[in-house]
Amino acid sequence: MEQLLLTFSLVVLFYLLIPGIGAFNVRARWRQFRRDLLRSSGYRIAEYEQFREASARPDGAELGDFRFFGALEAIQGDDAIWLKRGNVTVAVDMSEVRVCVLNPDREEGGRHLWVENPTLHYPDLTPLVTPWSRMGSLPEGTRFFVGGRLEVQRGLPTFRRGNGGRLVVVIYEGEDESLLARCVWSGRQRNEYWNPYTPASLLAGAFSLLILSYLFLRSPLLRLPVLFSLTLSTVPIMPLLPPGVVLFFLYRFWWRRGRYFRAQRDLVRLPLRYFGEEAIPGTAALPDGARYRCTLVSPEELREQEGSGTRIREVPGFRTASYHETYYLFGAEEDRQPTAKVVRPADPMAEHVAYREHPAELAGLCDRQARRLEQRAIAAFAVGMLLNAYTVFLVLSNLVR
Fold first, then answer.
1. Cβ(105)–Cβ(112) under 8 Å?
2. Does one domain contain both 207 and 329?
3. What is the pTM of this model?
């Protein structure tokens, strides 16, 4: 009994506990990245007036929370870069900053994914997140997005971490208007269980169980513990063994679909961050002071929007109770009149999009579907592992006498 307890303790430690802690850390880190980016989208864009204000303020003075889209102009030392957009140049203190490198907005052949089919592909290309100190050389003109606290340093506006605040830095290609949606869509782990802790933990677990099996072999009375420890030492390769390998591929399919619907859920909710989920139709203020409006329009009115860049967003195959012939249209008011036309916002992070269902209901449906698919995936994986473990146990029982 003690031998079996020791075996299962090693299994729980190396196969479940350590990878599980890594899984929760990875998911929490990506969730925090998306939250920080969404929070940054509510900051004002740094303009030339911040230059004038910085020149009149002492070093260390805080100008507030801002964001900036710019191209790399220069790198100064190890931890400072200069970004420029138009006639505005800002410095960024990159010390202790983690940089997100977003995957290119292109497929082979040069097609723009977010222009043609924004959500018809899976969110498989996870962005690279790395400390700035590990970044290699970058060419002049590399595009950056920065969001965070702006301070005065040497009379110039400078983005810096500090006072518990975070600095969001994204390197990207493509249009500014697609940056937020692409980060929300792809900013998640492909499989949380497979994280930086997992490979070493699985190897350590398998090696520990093999050593344990060798020690148990010294006693003829410990044949059952030997079989259990040898069987469980094959866990790192067990999913790929027959007959459970079919369920392993089914698990991968369902988990991938679950991740797709989680990404859809987050994408659908994007315009709601200005209103709250129940406050639409209605109006809200954008960071630049413009009025952001959600209004119900007919298909004919929506067709009049053609050419203005309105994107109709749907989740393929989904229909909610709010599905009808009118659309929830989000955009900026052309002027401040209640009957004003809804147009593309000047703010690149405010979406000009239309939904046929209430976005909150559609997001809730995506969330429930994602949970169902993930539950199916876990069940398929567990059943497949049990089948394979039983098969391996039978094989070993004929070999170990």
1. yes
2. no
3. 0.88
CA distances 318 to 267, 312, 354, 369, Å, are: 15, 14, 15, 10
In the chain, the number of structural domains is 3
In a domain, 157, yes or no: yes
**Burial (0-12, 13-18, 19+ Cβ within 10 Å), 185:** buried
Helix H, strand E, coil C: the string for the chain is: CHHHHHHHHHHHHHHHHHHHHHHHHHHHHHHHHHHHHHHHCCCEECCHHHHHHHHCCCCCCEEEEEEEEEEEEEEECCCEEEEEECCEEEEEECCCCEEEECCCCCCCCCCCHHHHCCCCCCCCCCCEEEEHHHCCCCCCCCEEEEEEEEEEECCEEEECCECCECCEEEEECCCHHHHHHHHHHHCCCCCCCCCCCHHHHHHHHHHHHHHHHHHHCCCHHHHHHHHHHHHHHCCCCHHHCCCCHHHHHHHHHHHHHHHHHHHHHHHHCHHHHHCCCCCCCEEEECCCCCEEEEEEECHHHHHCCCCCCCEECCCCCCCCCCCCCCEEEEEEECCCCCCCCEECCCCCCCCCEEECCCHHHHHHHHHHHHHHHHHHHHHHHHHHHHHHHHHHHHHHHHHCC
pLDDT at residue 313, rounded to an integer: 82
Q: Name residue 325's amino acid.
A: E
Cα separation, 290 vs 352, whole angstroms: 13
Pairwise CA distance, residues 247 & 249, whole Å:
5
Domain region containing 353: 266-365
| Token pair of 86 as six digits | 């138009």
Name the residue with tokens 């971490």. Answer: 161
Q: Taking residues 77-99, report their average pLDDT.
A: 92
| 249 & 315 share domain | no
Tokens 């209901």, located at residue? 361
Q: What is the mean pLDDT of residues 39-62?
A: 85
Residue with tokens 């479940």: 16
Q: Which residues of 327-343 are buried (b: 16+ CB within 10 A; e: fewer)?
A: bbbbbbbeeeeeeeebb
| Model confidence band, residue 280 (pLDDT cutoffs 50, 70, 90) | confident
**Would the pLDDT of 93 be above 50?**
yes
Task: Kindly compute the dihedral angle of the four CA atoms of residues 377, 378, 383, 387, in this order, to the nearest 10 degrees.
Answer: 90
Domain finish residue from 170, 186, 202: 186
Residue 272 CA, chain-centre distance (Å), reads: 18
